Amino acid sequence: MTAVADAHDVHVGASRPHGWKHLTAPGFVRAAWMMPLFALIGIGIVVFFRWLGHYDPIWKWETITVVAFLTLMPLGFLAGIGAFDYWAGYFIGRPTVADDHSSHGARSWRDYFRVNTDHKVIGVQYVVTTFFFFVIGGLMAMVMRAELARPGGHILGAQQFNDAVSSHAAFMIFLFIIPSFAGLANFVVPLMLGAPDMAFPRLNALSYWLLPIAGLMLIGGFFAPGGYGAGWTNYPTLSTSQPWGNVFFCMAVQWAGASSIMTALNFLVTIITMRAPGMTFWRMPLLVWANFTTSMLVVVATPFIAGSQFFVMFDRVLHTHFFDPNHGGYVLGYQHIFWFYSHPAVYIMMLPGFGIMSEVIAVMARKPVFGYRLMALSLLAILVLGFSVWAHHMFVAGMAPWLRVPMMVTSMIIAVPTGIKIFSWLATMWAGRIRLTTSFLFACGFITTFVLGGLSGIYLASVPIDIHASDTYFVVAHIHYVLFGGSVFTIFAGVYFWFPKMTGRMYDERLGRLHFWLTFIGFNATFFPMHILGLDGMPRRVYDYAPKFAGLNLFISIASFVLGASTLVFFYNMIKSWRSGPPAPANPWGGKTLEWLVSSPPPIFNFDTIPQVVGGPYEFGIPGARHAVLEPEQQLHVVAASETEHAE
Amino acid sequence: VTRRSVLQLIVIGLVAGAIATAVAVLLPWLPPVASKEGQRIDDVYWLVTIISIVVFAVVMAVLLTALINFRVPLDDDQDGPPIHGHTKLEIVWTAIPAVLVTIVSIVSAIVLADNGKASGVGRPLHVRVWAQEYAWTFQYPEYKNVSLPNLVIPVGRSVELTMRSRDVIHSFWVPQFRQKQDLLPDQDTKLIITPTKTGEFPVICTELCGLGHSVMRTSAIVKGQAAFAAYMTQAMTPKKLSGLAVFTQNGCGGCHVLSAAKSTGTTGPDLDYLAAYAKKAGKPLTGFIEESIVNPEAYIEPGCPKGVMPPNFGQTIAKPQLDALVSFLAQNGTKAEPHKGCG
Hints:
The structure holds two protein chains of two kinds.
Chain A: H1 2-11, H2 21-24, H3 28-52, H4 61-81, H5 85-91, H6 119-148, H7 158-193, H8 201-221, H9 246-273, H10 286-317, H11 331-348, H12 351-365, H13 372-385, H14 404-413, H15 415-429, E1 434-435, H16 438-461, H17 463-469, H18 473-503, H19 509-536, H20 550-580, E2 612-613, E3 628-629, H21 635-645
Antiparallel strand pairs in A: 2-3
Chain B: H1 3-26, H2 36-69, E1 71-72, H3 87-115, E2 125-132, E3 135-140, E4 146-148, E5 151-154, E6 159-165, E7 170-174, E8 179-183, E9 189-193, E10 199-205, E11 217-223, H4 225-236, H5 243-249, E12 257-258, E13 263-264, H6 274-281, H7 285-294, H8 313-316, H9 319-332
Parallel strand pairs in B: 2-6, 5-11
Antiparallel strand pairs in B: 2-3, 3-4, 6-9, 7-8, 7-10, 10-11, 12-13
Helix pairs in contact in B: 1-2, 2-3, 5-9, 7-9
């Protein structure tokens, strides 16, 4: 063991450049001059070709923005920080070192601010970055609720309100929920598999660095003419007739989408090829199963939203007519392409959370996950069914009428595998020995709110009820029950659950409980009344409403500020515990999966020896049974124990 | 599982079910229904509500009973029993939800089919609906194509709406009718409504259509058969062209303040001060007003958003109506002192 580790240590950690070397060494200094350089090249290309073709005017902001500022400048940033250095060197024939780990691991806080190929560092980078965007998206929501506290426009103009609506959704979906799951999985999945890292560490680093680019682009869109007037759904012909700020949204989606696709490919290859010896598919923890199915969804579906936004951008910049009704374009076509991604996206935002729930509930109740195989199969069922329900977002859109009933039936059927998961978690808790940690509280909160979100989903899947409830606050309530009460609660559960593993510190359990109760109460008080508003006649995405809704809206606004304040408790707890919490043991919760068998935080290459997997991931209650062993001499003994007593 | 925890399960389930039932019955969820289609939709709504209450009660019962009975201190380190599954139980909780959603699907499909057919007295009344940023127009082919800014319909008779947008996607919704349908710029969409009550109900745009989306409202007025006939006869008699009518019909008030029309929209410039803007633009008042309607980008008052006003009023408003509108605005937008244009 030591020989390998020592060899690694020699190469770990980048040497710090001196003097003029700063300008050419990968890092923010090099990015600072490469970004304007790349932007200038982009401006040059546009101006030259417009001049060559006698286009008037030669200087067109929208085209220049797309080419120079939203495409080439980000590439300059990536080149500057060194995301392409290894590949570029390989390409021009520089000698490559097979065992080069100079970009791997974190020795100081500085290593979190550079291109780092260690999946644990990238996981932390992801989670911290996405919580930054969570705050921005949350502030947008606070601003909206302040506007909606009473009827009549008073704080924001119509433009700023639409900006807040669109960017709240865009930040929360593309820059918080989806990538924060990718971040948690980045940290945990290779550990759970017994792998030293992801399959493609450099691709993994690149995937992360695309995210801040997408985020800054969404922020930049505020300052461009028109902002995001068309909602996160960006339906044409509204999006194609907006001022040119709209291209910021189109391009931000490309960067975030590319990040998702690359990460998903990385997960697929890692999960398929890098499982430790003995880790059959039926011995994988359900979190790994969840990320396996999610990654398949991402790889197949995400290109569709990328396409839809490219088409909108082409219609605007290149004067194509994909969605232009005056030139044979097909306006509804956009919605089909968009939802063919954006419905599976709901499961991209749910399945990793399901995985987290299975881990948290099994470990905290100290019982095997009830019906493990059916739990994994129901993930696959959701994966397949998830591609057959997209048009339920379009029941009133004017699509071919015959599509309504089949899409309703598939949408209803998807409740069955989802129900299996809920009942199996409940059965896992039943007769267990439940330790009510913060992560388990969030799991219980999740089950409560997600069941409510699932039930309101039945209303919306039924075409006749959806005709009434579509595009109202009922839908706003539903998606928040699913994506906040669902996804975000599981993200919180996951962060609390693996915080000791990620930071090597324990968090404050009392503050965690306070955070849970403030969030749970604030959440329900904010979003439950929205069901009533919607059915009673309040449409979504409006800054003004009928006076009869004033009372409920004021109540919702006050509750939303409680909900907003609850995250302050969370951030205080996280920051304080990270700096000065008590040191965490390797296995604070008594988990059986592989990440709990190594120190907290794990060693720089995860495992000193390749672990041997000898049983299922949740072998609670069987004396001597283990999921995996690290020490070779123990192996024989434990294999015998687990195979004689393994049930099911 | 002890007998005590089964008893707890039942008690908690009943309490949770009772609370959910109270919430479902006592709170004012749906506005009073005013169409046949809406009555059928409400039936499906109550079916789903009953199923939801039962499912919610069962889940809460199991969750809370488990939390009460099986909780141990945080430092406990004993395992629970190694139960890996129970095939019969798993079949049950796969089959029951499958049966429930099948029932809901069948009922929904039947109601959907019924709601697609005109079920009122006599022939259905055809109305052509036009939407544009940010106004509604209702055109009556059976009544000399007269156009109204409100949907006026007779009680008891089915109305067949054929709808089209003139620019972006809009959506037509009357909560009391429970009926909603998007309007597209490139194809017609249809909706059937059979009103059962007279009265005035809001027509709401529910698809984000731009800066004036929040104010894109009008009303649906349901009249008795005789009152409807009388109203339409009167609507068909030629009237003197009124600038105020053109102003209201085209939804100008959605975005503009104009005291003479009692409108309060604040997205676009305050039209009481048209004289001031014309002076700033250095143009004669009537010429300035006409240009601003037909080609809104020609002059943008500082502080007002660009690219918001629909650019196609030159095509959608006929020349006589446009002239009437311009002279109406010139007569009423006379305030000349400098003024903050928008907001």
